[in-house]
Design a protein that fits this description.
Elements: H1 4-18, E1 25-28, E2 32-38, H2 41-51, H3 53-61, H4 70-83, E3 87-90, H5 94-103, E4 107-111, H6 113-124, E5 129-131, H7 138-142, E6 149-155, E7 158-162, H8 164-167, E8 175-181, E9 186-187, E10 190-191, E11 196-202, H9 213-217, H10 219-223, E12 228-231, H11 243-258, E13 263-266, H12 273-282, E14 288-291, H13 293-302, H14 306-311, H15 320-334, E15 338-343, E16 346-351, H16 356-375, H17 396-407, E17 413-416, E18 419-425, H18 438-453
Parallel strand pairs: 1-5, 1-12, 2-8, 3-11, 5-6, 12-13, 13-14, 14-15
Antiparallel strand pairs: 2-4, 6-7, 8-11, 9-10, 15-16, 16-18, 17-18
Helix pairs in contact: 1-16, 2-4, 3-4, 6-18, 13-15, 16-18
The protein binds adenosine monophosphate and alpha-D-glucopyranose.
The site of adenosine monophosphate (AMP) has 15 residues, from β15, α16 and α18.
Length: 455
């Protein structure tokens, strides 16, 4: 059996030394404000009765496409609770936006993959980042940590990079209302099988991937200042909205590829099939992609791999052989060089290249995720060491055994059909403070960590 605790210790020490050496990361495109509400049973039940229980229950069976009424909002929250699954919908109606605002929140936090990674990489790890923020309201700006975090600003036709707090935009606030519930949360006759959240996005910018002029017109110049790029936020696009942003993305990828900048795509759950197919068609221009089991399964579906798609959702823990098969298909079909898969309990990385640094970056990411689950927010790289005390997920032993049997995996590394497969068991925090943003912490840390290990 692998000595995982020793490998974990080695990985965090390596990361503390290497990660701050990274000189610049570009982050596009989604940044917003997360207004987090921890749900309470009595309050929620009263609201459901008032809105009309039968109407609400209808939407807890099947999610609406977007939210245009209060029963739809409450029903969608119930949908998530009943299944212990995350979901996110656009809130179109102003009265519902107002209802959510009056309902209130317990905490305001940085949101969106870009915002979360900007604070983590720039504010905590000290790695300079250039972030795309579609709307910079005062509230949005105040959520950025101090540190080398920059947004482009154009003054007298010249590009300047300034901290978001210095941008002094008085623009709109894009607020995502996050309704969080713990495992075992009870409402009406339902009980949540797992902690999770439902997100109602009161946001007209990120939901259509609005890209600012400052970014579009100066992209070449911006790219010259970075070594890596991470793209996210394509998940909310629909058949009606995808054309223009996907075209800009293609142009951006071309520039990034010209400068040999490795680009990672953080693939969040994308309900629209057409958009998923579009993303698949540009995946080869990315160096790397990060996803979980639901996302990988949804990609297998549009690739016509129905059986594999179902297999990925059939077991707990997720069957690692099915995951490896799916990753191999994705890598071969698109040419993407690195696929990072994360699920509750373990991570895998399939890479075109070899080395223990791939596995060590996963270990670093798992510690960062556990630290984030424990504390809600991490405040320094060193603080991530505290997560060494969190126990390793027991169920992951079965996963490791299956991989050892199938692919002769040793110390978390195997050779599969000309690719390297790296595996790690993760540390799971029993009672996480909140779940939103953990996935971004994992993917950002692993991608930047891996790159820093070979600098
Ligand atoms: P996502 O599915 O993209 O939202 O990312 C969530 C990821 O966070 C999961 O795949 C897990 O690997 C990780 N995660 C969730 N809950 C915990 C927890 N309590 N402790 C540590 N990691 C967690
Ligand atoms: C999505 C949500 C955003 C949240 C983020 C966390 O981008 O829209 O509100 O902060 O996911 O990963």
């Amino acid at each position: 059996m692998t000595e995982w605790e020793g490998l974990y210790k080695g990985a965090i020490e390596r990361a503390i030394k290497s990660v701050p050496k990274v000189k610049g990361v570009l982050l596009g495109y989604n940044t917003n404000i997360d207004a987090i509400k921890y749900l309470e049973r009595k309050d929620l039940e009263e609201r459901i009765e008032k809105a009309g229980r039968d109407e609400v229950l209808k939407y807890s069976e099947e999610l609406p496409e977007k939210i245009t009424s209060v029963p739809q909002l409450l029903g969608s929250i119930l949908w998530s609770i009943r299944r212990g699954k995350a979901a996110e919908l656009f809130v179109e109606s102003c009265p519902v936006r107002f209802y959510m605002k009056r309902w209130g929140w317990n905490e305001l936090r940085m949101g969106g993959q870009v915002g979360i990674m900007a604070n983590l990489l720039g504010g905590v790890y000290g790695v300079p980042v250039i972030a795309h923020v579609p709307q910079l309201s005062r509230l949005q700006a105040s959520l950025f940590l101090d540190g080398p975090i920059y947004v482009p600003k154009v003054e007298n036709g010249k590009l300047k990079l300034v901290h978001p707090k210095e941008f002094q935009g008085d623009e709109e606030s894009c607020i995502h209302f996050i309704y969080e519930f713990p495992r075992g949360f009870k409402v009406l006759e339902f009980e949540a099988p797992r902690e999770n959240r439902f997100i109602g996005a009161a946001d007209d910018y990120n939901t259509t991937v609005f890209i600012r002029d400052e970014f579009r017109e100066n992209f070449d110049e911006i790219v010259k200042k970075v070594q890596l790029a991470i793209i996210s936020g394509l998940q909310a696009l629909t058949e009606e909205t995808y054309k223009e942003p996907m075209e800009i993305l293609r142009q951006h990828l071309e520039v990034l590829n010209d400068y040999n900048i490795p680009v990672h795509l953080e693939f969040a759950f994308t309900p629209d099939e057409k958009v998923r197919k579009e993303i698949l068609s540009v995946l080869g221009k990315f160096y790397s992609v990060g996803l979980n089991e639901v996302e990988l399964s949804s990609i297998m579906e549009v690739m016509g791999e129905k059986e594999l798609a179902e297999k990925l959702l059939a077991h707990d823990p997720v069957d690692p052989i099915a995951v490896t098969q799916a990753m191999l298909k994705l890598a071969k079909e698109t040419g993407v060089k690195r696929i990072h898969f994360h699920t509750y309990g373990y991570y895998l990385a399939l890479t075109e290249y070899r080395g223990e640094h791939v596995r060590d970056a996963l270990l670093f990411a798992a510690l960062a995720a556990a630290a984030k689950a424990m504390k809600g927010n991490i405040t320094s790289l060193e603080e991530i060491r505290d997560a060494l005390s969190v126990p390793i997920n027991e169920k992951a032993r079965m996963v490791e055994e299956a991989l050892a049997k199938e692919y002769s995996m040793n110390n978390g590394i195997a050779e599969v059909e000309g690719y390297q497969l790296a595996f790690i068991p993760t540390k799971i925090v029993e009672k996480p403070k909140s779940t939103v943003g953990i996935g971004d912490t994992i993917s950002g840390s692993a991608f930047v960590g891996e790159f820093s290990f070979v600098l």
